[in-house]
Structure to design on (684 residues):
């Protein structure tokens, strides 16, 4: 440590420090100053590399946003396929460059709209999709070779993705032209998001079936989006989000290899999805560390040879859990900072939350402001002009190193518990997340942490903004359409394809072609899931808090 | 006479898995000395009411972030009535717009509703005030 630093420190310590907190949103303490000698030594080639060069700390492309801006991709979907289709066409007309589909809970959990468990939830938090018919309506007048589509679907991903591929087929577009992403990340469902259907083994089989089918037929598709977003929303710290997500990523790589694939055959199609919370520098460090860790592990532990296998490409969404009900307009500001962190962290695509999402699905006005936030960032702030502008900052590089070290420590713990599935069984992730969530809440309640409008700077009275309402009629009309479909389709063909699917599930053949046959026959999602449940069973968790 | 501790069922109805709020509340109530039963995810109103009666709780607290609050709260109240268990109080929280809160409270579909930003201290005191006033319970 240089004498300079020590004399500065003596000066600093002699002065009064205001009441903090001086810790990150993840409760990590931050020093008042980072300076030479005080921080880890950085070897440029080893630790950073140029953009587009190993270990990719500075970005996955050599030209980053000087070549092409990130994809502005707003997550949207509500009510019926027809209404969501109109929202998509609106977003595309506003300059959005990719689609991102939100499904309703019955679709996510594998229930048709007419199932008793779906009561009250049809079209509420996303769009209701029961069959190919709905998927065709959802993308009506949108040419599927012209857009890339991200679909947030996990447990039934194989079915929903098959519906998308068949809907494109009906538009006369061949599968090898399709681009997009399915989330398809079941591990984080067991860990945090909790929208599971089947137990881990058959779930992992469906995922590797998708990897295999995609390699042959839908080669440009991102077959999985390994997601930290939901882990973070459930209460995890930035470090936990990073470590648990990458651990999941390694588990999928191992599953693919175990299923007989060469790592370079599917690793280039793996993509990631992170949260961006309000602690600016911590988030940027997380993204930079994520790229470096992924590249190092893929090369050194999994023997990946292709460059694309080493690249961590990721989507980012700003933190829904950071938004406040009171003074909702302040959420625009939070989202803007979070979006800037994601961009300085080198994200490939971005969703910015709307100010009203803590209260309801976003209104059109609120979505427009959120999209404009990205456009201001891209076209006015100048942060896109140079690549990875924070590299070499004593503070940023220290945080990045700490993230990597912390993640490695978590990987060791997870290994000791028997890998990701073992750790899930032991409730390791679930307990870590619950503890972090509780600590965060306590910090707010003791005012150790200030949240504007919540525990300080509070406005008296209620703030009113206009919210999107979902008409209860939506559920009834969706059920009526489903009833019509079940009467008008060839029900013998439906039964045949469903029994073929069941038979295949009992064996080891790839299930995707069988699912697609049932989709073409207009079998519903719920019918296919029911057949698979008969073979695979259902997952149950032991909840901890 | 020894007073019984407050017993609460923290329930997570609906199909969504957003259990952060439910778990934080469950833990805060436990830390405040209450006996807490957490239902786990994906419960139907029928399952929650059955568990509430079996566990002999004073109160059900449900967390809803799926937008299904306008059907779930009335349904739980209706089932409590059918089971002659109207003495079990119902409170909730989640992403519930203000006007829906007013509608639900005024119609008696819930005793109290909290939105994101409510503190666990607030919730604990509401429960204590409400139950200590009406029942032979302590914390």
């Amino acid at each position: 440590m240089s004498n300079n630093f020590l004399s500065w420190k003596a000066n600093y310590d002699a002065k009064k420090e205001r009441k903090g907190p001086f810790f990150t949103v993840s409760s990590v303490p931050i020093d008042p100053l980072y300076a030479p000698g005080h921080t880890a030594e950085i070897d440029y080639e080893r630790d950073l590399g140029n953009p587009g060069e190993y270990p990719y700390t500075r970005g996955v492309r050599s030209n980053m946003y000087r070549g092409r801006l990130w994809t502005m991709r707003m997550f949207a979907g509500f009510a019926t396929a027809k209404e969501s289709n109109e929202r998509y066409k609106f977003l595309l007309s506003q300059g959005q460059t990719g689609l991102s589909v939100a499904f309703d809970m019955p679709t996510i959990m594998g229930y048709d709209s007419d199932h008793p468990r779906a009561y009250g939830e049809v079209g509420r938090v996303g769009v209701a999709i029961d069959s190919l018919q709905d998927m065709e309506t959802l993308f009506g007048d949108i040419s599927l070779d012209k857009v890339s589509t991200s679909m947030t679907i996990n447990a039934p991903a194989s079915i929903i993705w098959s519906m998308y591929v068949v809907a494109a087929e009906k538009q006369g577009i061949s599968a090898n032209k399709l681009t997009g992403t399915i989330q398809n990340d079941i591990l984080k469902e067991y860990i945090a998001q909790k929208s599971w259907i089947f137990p881990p083994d058959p779930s992992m089989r469906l995922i590797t079936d998708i990897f295999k089918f995609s390699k042959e037929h839908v080669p440009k598709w991102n077959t999985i989006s390994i997601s930290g977003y939901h882990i973070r929303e459930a209460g995890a710290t930035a470090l936990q989000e990073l470590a648990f997500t990458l651990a999941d990523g390694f588990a999928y790589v191992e599953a693919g290899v175990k299923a007989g694939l060469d790592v370079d055959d599917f690793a280039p199609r793996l993509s990631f999805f992170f949260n961006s919370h309000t602690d600016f520098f911590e988030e940027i460090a997380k993204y930079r560390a994520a790229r470096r860790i992924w590249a190092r592990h893929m090369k050194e532990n999994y023997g990946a040879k292709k460059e694309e296998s080493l690249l961590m490409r990721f989507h980012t969404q700003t933190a829904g859990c950071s938004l406040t009900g009171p003074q909702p307009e302040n959420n625009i500001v939070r989202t803007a900072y979070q979006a800037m962190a994601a961009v300085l962290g080198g994200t490939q695509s971005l969703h910015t939350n709307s100010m009203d999402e803590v209260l309801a699905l976003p209104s059109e006005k609120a979505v427009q402001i959120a999209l404009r936030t990205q456009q201001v960032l891209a076209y006015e702030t100048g942060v896109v002009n140079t690549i990875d502008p924070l590299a070499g900052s004593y503070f940023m590089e220290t945080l990045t190193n700490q993230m990597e070290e912390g993640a490695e420590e978590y990987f060791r713990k997870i290994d000791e518990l028997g890998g990701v599935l073992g750790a899930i069984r032991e409730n390791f992730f679930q307990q870590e997340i619950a503890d972090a969530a509780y600590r965060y809440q306590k910090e707010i309640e003791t005012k150790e942490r200030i949240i504007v409008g919540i525990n300080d700077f509070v406005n008296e009275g209620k703030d009113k903004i206009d919210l999107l309402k979902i008409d209860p009629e939506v559920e009834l009309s969706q059920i009526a359409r489903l009833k019509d479909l079940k009467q008008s389709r060839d029900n013998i063909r439906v039964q045949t394809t469903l029994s073929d699917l069941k038979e295949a599930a009992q064996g080891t053949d790839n299930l995707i072609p069988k699912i697609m046959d049932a989709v073409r026959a207009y079998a519903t999602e719920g019918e296919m899931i029911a057949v698979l449940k008969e073979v695979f069973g259902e997952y149950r968790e032991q909840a901890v808090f | 006479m020894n007073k019984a501790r407050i017993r609460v069922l923290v329930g997570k109805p609906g199909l969504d898995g957003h259990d952060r709020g439910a778990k934080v509340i469950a833990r805060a109530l436990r830390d405040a000395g209450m006996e807490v039963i957490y239902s786990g995810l994906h419960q139907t109103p029928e399952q929650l009411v059955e568990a509430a009666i079996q566990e002999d709780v004073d109160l059900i607290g449900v967390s809803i972030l799926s937008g299904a609050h306008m059907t779930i709260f009335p349904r739980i109240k209706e089932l409590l009535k059918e089971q002659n268990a109207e003495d079990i109080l119902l409170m909730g929280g989640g992403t519930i717009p203000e006007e829906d809160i007013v509608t639900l409270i005024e119609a008696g579909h819930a005793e109290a509703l909290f939105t994101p930003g409510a503190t666990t201290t607030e919730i604990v005191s509401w429960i204590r005030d409400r139950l200590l006033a009406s029942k032979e319970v302590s914390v």
User: Anything to note?
Assistant: Chain A has one domain: 44-445. The two ends of chain A are 44 Å apart (CA to CA). The first strand of chain A starts at residue 71 and ends at 72.
